[in-house]
Every structure is written in C-alpha cells, then in structure tokens.
Amino acid sequence: MTPPRHTNYGCSSSRRDVLRWGTLSALGLGCAERLRLQATAHETASIRAKSCILLWLDGGPSHLETWDMKPAASAEVRGPFSPIVTKTPGIHISELLPLTAQKIDHVAIIRSLTSPLGEHGLANRYLLTGYRPSPVLEYPSYGSVVSHMRNRKVELPPYIAIPNSRSAGAGYLGSQHDPFHTEGDPAKADFAVRDLDFFPGLTAERVHRRQDYLRTFDAVQSAFESQQVASDTAFAQAYRMTTSVEAKRAFRIEEEPIAVRERYGSRTFGQSCLLARRLVERGVPFVTVYNSGWDTHENLTLSLRDGYAGAKVGVGLVPTFDLGFSALIGDLAERGMLQETLVIAMGEFGRTPKLNQRGGRDHWPRVFSCVLAGAGIRGGQVIGSSDKWGESPSDNPVTPADLAFTIYTLLGIDPQSKLVTSDGRPVALNQGGRMIAELA
Questions:
Q1: Are 196 and 251 in contact (CB under 8 A)?
Q2: Quick check: 341 pLDDT over 60?
Q3: Is it true that the peptide bond before 116 is cis, omega within 30 degrees of 0?
C-alpha cells in the first residue's frame, strides 16, 4: 500500500474562501490563481542578507571544468581545459571563467559538497531543500521558506523564478508559497511577464470599482463568520501587482541603460541575472534564475565552451555564465547591495572524474562544487577540497543539510526552528546540518 502523501497543504476551504476565490477571478487578476490566501508570516529579528539570488545550473555542472581543476591528473580526468590564476593568489579556476577570476575576491568556493543522490529529480530536491526526499512528505525549497517567514512589504511576490523553476516547490507549506514564474525570455525585445495585465476589456477604473465591491462584501460576510480568517495577503498582492505602476516597472528590463544591459551580455542567462538584480533592488527577498543544459553526457567542449559548431567566440554554458555571474557580482557591489544580498550558483551534482567515450561526463554526486558571494561572507577563499581525481571529498565534506543550515542562517532564519504542516505536524526546518564555519 502506497503511504499517503501530504500534498493538499492548504487550509480547508471555508465558504468565505470559496466566495473570495471567485471574486479574485471576477476582478480579472490572472496572477491571483497562483497567489492564494496565506497565513500571517513571521519575520526574524536578525537578517544578515535581505535577499537571495539563486542561480540554479540545472543538469549538474562539471566541477572539473569550472571550480575544481585537476591539471596534474591524466588527460581523461583533467579534461580539455586549463586552469588560470585569479585575483586571489593561490586560487585557480577554469580558463572559461576569466571575468569571474577577477571577481573571485567576492566569491567563496565550496569544493567538497557531497551527496548520495545521482538522479536529477531526487538530487534537485535534496539540494534545494536540505532534506533527502521522502515519499510521505514534500519539503519546501529555500524560496518557499523565505516566502513563509518574511512579511510581504512590497507589491511583488516574495519568491520569483526566472523564467520558471525545477522541482522542489513549497511542499507542505502549500502552493501559496510556490514561486511566481515570469515565463518568457528577458533577452527578447517583446519580453513581458504574464498575468501582470488585466483581462481583455478590463480597465484600471473597473478593477478599482470591483475592489470597492469586495470591501462591501467583506463587511457583510464578516457578520456570518465567527472565526478570524488569515489575512488576504495573496489577494492584496495580486491586486497591487496588477494596479501598481512600480510593480510592473520592476520587470521592465528595457528601462536599464544600454551599457548595463551589454555588461550582462545579450543572452538569456545574463539578462535574467540583470532582472534578478532589479527585483531584489525593489525588495523581493528570493529570486531564482533557472539555467538549463548542464547535463553534459557528451561533447562537453561544444556545450561548455563553444555553444555551437564553428563558433569563433565561445558562447557555451560556461562563458555565458561567466559574463552574467561576474556582471551580477560587480553590479551588486558597485550599488552597495552585495553585503545584503546572498548570491548562490550551484546545480544538483557534479560530473564523473573520467571523461566517457562520447567526450562528456556522467552524473557524479560524491563530490562537486558550488559558489557563494555577498551576505557579508569572506570572499577569496576555498572551502574543503576533493581528492586528486575530483572523485571524493578529501577535506571538510559539506552536505546539502549543511548548506541549507548556512543559507538559512545568512538569511536571518533560524535553521533550528520548526514549521507546521496543515494537519498540525511540527517539522524541523533543518535536520542534521551545521553552519559552514568559514561562511559564518
């Protein structure tokens, strides 16, 4: 018998809820369907980083072609690329990351991440929650926890994904804490975020009038309800997003100066990083930039460096990341935002120490790398190490639970606190993790 899954996480619907959801539709607010009622959140007292930008490199980036080069190993291990020096003496990274090499004084590299899970979906959820996946309870991702814990003080959602997100959504916290997906490509001239405009035929005046009707409805309905219902955060947010000029402007990346847009590069990833900066600048506490293609089972030279056959200038995954990531770090630093913004770049696992017969590398969770910047952490450092083949951790192994503990701590969320499922079950936010001392 299959164990029950806690997938219906929302509170049971009262008659008022049902009527309100219908009213949301009547208002013509498309985004309201994805921004349902949420209970009052609790903001923590100590917040080291106000916002987090997670650059999710989906598919599993090769640590051996990026952050953890092995130049002394055999050709089948070291691969086709060479290490280069960085701004910090003693730290070497891939030749495909020359711009990041000049910003490494802001960046901490973890070279000893380790996990037992080598399947994309399971590994993805493990890295994005800090919990090993369970068949009976779906754990919330970092962004969903932030959405739950932080009060919403702006017109924008607390958790936004550009253009969408992989698995590991809100889990037992309920769909109201799932990310708001922008969809679309911010690098294109016609980029527009869905659900930010009224339905055809509706004007701002009509929506405001319907809002007045809703207030009247609330006053009458409250006489029939004896129990206080959680504040209508999602409705208010949907209403503000759709009627607020400033909320809409946050997504208008075309308003950025040409020089700034060029700094990030013309490709989707770079412009997504720029959009992420605009969002955290306007108070969004958690933004994920989803970047796919890192599952390089074959011809990694083409995928990672060139981008396409015959390319004269490398526009593959790593040069594109290098341009966008270095621009983001530099831009945040110059604007005085890096100290209060945590930037993370990682995927679900690394790649095999030996190249396969197709010129690629397969899944390898036993050891891999990630990088962090901002939030007051000391840059220009390497945490942990792998062995001479990049096969296993040789020093200071870091688990996904450790990483989660550290991320929550940096965001001012107590990793030892407990959350509660809809059926009243208390669940620890983190299980078995520790603070990564070098990032404290």
A1: yes
A2: yes
A3: no
| Contact (Cβ atoms closer than 8 angstroms) between residue 285 and residue 158 | yes
Q: Token pair of 126, please?
A: 């493990």
Mean pLDDT throughout 124-148? 97
Amino acid, single-letter form, for residue 147: S
8-state DSSP, 145: H
Q: Are 141 and 129 in contact (CB under 8 A)?
A: yes
12 DSSP assignment: P
In DSSP terms, which residues pair with 162 in a beta bridge? Answer: 289
The two three-digit tokens of residue 242, written as one number: 């759709």
pLDDT tens per residue, range 4-28: 333 333 333 333 333 443 444 444 4
Nearest-angstrom CA–CA distance, 165 and 438: 29
Higher pLDDT, 368 or 214: 368
Lowest mean pLDDT among 73-82, 237-246, 347-356, 421-430: 237-246
Domain spans in the chain, listed from the N-terminal domain onward = 38-196+251-439
Q: Is 301 helix (H, G, I), strand (E, B) or coil?
A: helix
Which residues, in sequence order, are bridge partners of residue 421? none
Q: Are 393 and 115 in contact (CB under 8 A)?
A: no
Phi, psi of 134 (to 5 degrees): -125, 145
Burial of 260 (0-12, 13-18, 19+ CB in 10 A): middle
d(CA 64, CA 366): 13
Q: What CATH topology corresponds to 38-196+251-439? A: Alkaline Phosphatase, subunit A (3.40.720)
Structure tokens at 23: 């009213």
Q: Which residues contact 363 (CB under 8 A, 6 or more apart)?
A: 60, 118, 119, 120, 123, 349, 351, 352
Separation of CA 65 from chain center:
23
- What is the residue whose two structure tokens read 């080069």? 69
Are 94 and 65 contacting, i.e. CB atoms less than 8 angstroms apart?
A: yes
How large is the average pLDDT for residues 160-183? 92
pLDDT tens-digit series, residues 197-246: 644 444 455 544 544 554 554 555 554 443 343 345 555 666 666 667 88
Token digits of residue 241 = 């997003």
Cα(first)–Cα(last) distance of the chain, in Å?
45
**Burial (0-12, 13-18, 19+ Cβ within 10 Å), 204:** exposed
